[in-house]
Specification:
alpha+beta, Chitinase A, domain 3, 2 domains, 4-stranded antiparallel sheet
Length: 307
């Protein structure tokens, strides 16, 4: 159970049930957190050129160099060229220029005799195998991450979960009981709770917001604070409440049941879970029956010196 520190209370999320569901899915994802594909640094290949787009259509030309729609689609998927804050037309121009520079540079490198040695061939082979693995894995993920699978996981995770009661409250934190009594006197004289909180509350996290803590469930606060808050009706102010952090004056603004999360709100997290699950199953299936033998380590576990 998470219990917030009332002396450093930040505004609680307005949907603690959704937060709990997120945590539930995160716990279910724990066995896959070290999924082998992620440990290997594999980035899944993006979708290819759209079916209606001809990948061979020439989009730009620089001398004898031709840049096609297929070339652009591949470059657009390069994480180094995402440029998310760039205007789409500007990004397209940048990508086309980059592809021209890339082609010019590759031609110059070949003319200089590069790319002919065994080391270069090994690097090309490595990249080819990595791309093949990514594309094959993506096929498995596409089969696993479906609307039906996502809906089933959502319904399984939320089955039997009941909404909790929540209150939205403000508080004023002071050091001594006499100060809390003085605060209550000011409120009874007509001063606004938020104004008094900004002036005297020693909880800087909420004081600037007029003492507002947002909505929270009973278990989110230490027991004396929570018990006092949930005993109040909207508009009521508590007597002084003592916790290990000082003395509180609490005002409840609203009460409600936590709203149930919607499938659409959770879809991204569910898809991420299904993706990692599919990655894990895919790699483990490939490794079935395969043992890795280290030839660079002797029987005592020390690395052998290379010639």
């Amino acid at each position: 159970m998470i219990v917030q520190n009332p002396k450093n209370l930040a505004t609680s999320t307005s949907n603690s049930f959704l937060t709990g569901l997120t945590g539930s899915i995160a716990r279910r994802m724990a066995p896959f957190a070290l999924a082998l594909p992620l440990a290997l640094g594999i980035a899944l290949s993006p979708a290819p050129v759209a079916a209606e787009e001809d990948p061979d259509r020439v989009v730009a030309r620089a001398g004898e160099i031709e840049i096609t729609a297929g070339d652009i689609a591949i470059a657009m998927a390069d994480p180094a060229l995402q440029l998310r804050d760039t205007d789409p037309d500007e990004r397209l121009e940048i990508v086309i220029t980059y592809l021209v520079d890339l082609r010019l540079g590759a031609q110059a490198a070949e003319e200089a005799g590069l790319g002919q040695d065994e080391e270069f061939a090994r690097r090309v082979a490595y990249l080819r195998e990595k791309m093949l693995l990514e594309d094959y894995m993506q096929l498995e993920i596409d089969d696993a991450v479906t609307d039906e699978a996502a809906r089933e996981l959502f319904e399984t995770t939320t089955a039997g979960v009941e909404p909790e009661d929540e209150v939205r409250a403000r508080h004023i934190l002071v050091e001594e009981e006499e100060e809390a009594i003085a605060v209550i006197a000011r409120l009874e004289a007509g001063e606004e709770f938020a104004d008094v909180a900004r002036e005297v509350s020693q909880d800087p996290g909420s004081a600037r917001n007029g003492g507002d803590l947002g909505f929270f469930a009973a278990g989110r606060m230490v027991a004396p604070f929570s018990e006092a808050a949930f005993a109040l009706e909207p508009g009521e102010v508590s007597d002084p409440v003592e916790t290990q952090f000082g003395w509180h004056v609490i005002k409840v603004e609203e009460r409600r049941e936590t709203p149930l999360p919607q499938f659409e709100d959770m879809r991204e997290q569910i898809d991420n879970f299904l993706t990692r699950q599919a990655q894990q199953a895919f790699i483990l299936n490939l490794r079935e029956g395969v043992e890795i033998e280290r030839l660079d380590i002797d029987e005592e576990g020390e690395e052998e010196e290379s010639d």
